Every structure is written in structure tokens, then in C-alpha cells.
Amino acid sequence: MKTKPTLEIENKLKAEGYKYIIGIDEAGRGPGAGPVVAAGVNIPDGFNISEINDSKKLTVKKRDSLFEIITNECPYGFSMIDNNLIDAINILEATKLAMRNVIYQMNEATVALIDGNFTVNNVDIEQMSLIRGDSRSASIAAASIIGKVIRDRHMDKLHKIYPIYGWDKNKGYLTKEHIEAIQTYGPCEYHRKTFGKVKEYV
Question: What is the pTM of this model?
Fold first, then answer.
């Protein structure tokens, strides 16, 4: 049976006295080009979560529609870490940095629900890491939508600079066509030079 994310975890935390809960997720840990984006969302009382789901389970049209609703009705923040910094500090540390920036932006937060099996250092709020959090927590799922849409739109802009790599379709992920383009033309300044399939051609 397929289940959608709920506010069960958030409501339990509210009952324990946590007043301002944010869900945090990232988009773009896996691609060989472009930034990683972290986003955070606080779902206010009364917000309709019936359509909210893990961004990967939604169509582009549905993500775009929900992006407008979430950004209009919910407090949110996001942070983008570019490929050069990813290469310098590695993708996990870049992801944590982006998430830390989101927590600093959303400085009213008293607890952060983080998608994954890690927490973020150098922040002074409570954190809860949730494996498959975007399928369990509506706050994290909403953040996954924000991060995915922001990153995809950014990759569409980069595609206009370098259409040869097909980023309008693959969003920087190392598809067969993308790898063939790297083999033919070499990587560009937006590629992650430390990533295996890119590294071979640097």
C-alpha cells in the first residue's frame, strides 16, 4: 500500500513543546554537474497537505503547481552550493553546508527534521534525521519539492549556456547522452570534476 507523508511526526513534536518545526531536504547530490540545493519548509496550522508528496513521485506540472502554493503559504528557505565548492569539500559536506544555511535563514526554528541518516553540525537547534523522510514527513516532502524545482530551473538556465549536454532533460545527472557529450566535448566549468564519470575526462 502506497502511503503519503503526514504531519504525525510534526504534531508529536508540537505536543512535546516544539513550536516551530522545519523539514529539510536536498536536491542534486547525485548529478555530475550543477549545484546541490537544500530547502527548508515550515508547514503552518491549517495548511492543506493532501497533495504534498516526495518530489520524485510527482510530475513536473504537479511540482510546479505545488511550488507556487508552498512558497505562497509556508515559510521557507533554500541554499545553493555550486559545483566548485562541492569539488573542494565533497558532496556530503556541501549538502550539510546548504542545510546549515537554511537553518540559519529560518532562525525561528526550534527543531529540524532532516531527510537522511546524518545531522548538521554547528547549529544550536534540535535535529532529527529521518531515513526516507520525504515519504514520511509532509514538511520534508514540501522541502523536497522546493529544492527540486529551484534546482531544475537553475539547470534549465545552464542548459541555455551549454545545450550540448542536454541539461534541460537530464538536469546534470550522468545519463548515457550526458556522458557521451562529456566524452565528445569534455567537461565545462559547471561540471563536478571530482565525480567519477566526469573525472575521467578532466
Answer: 0.96
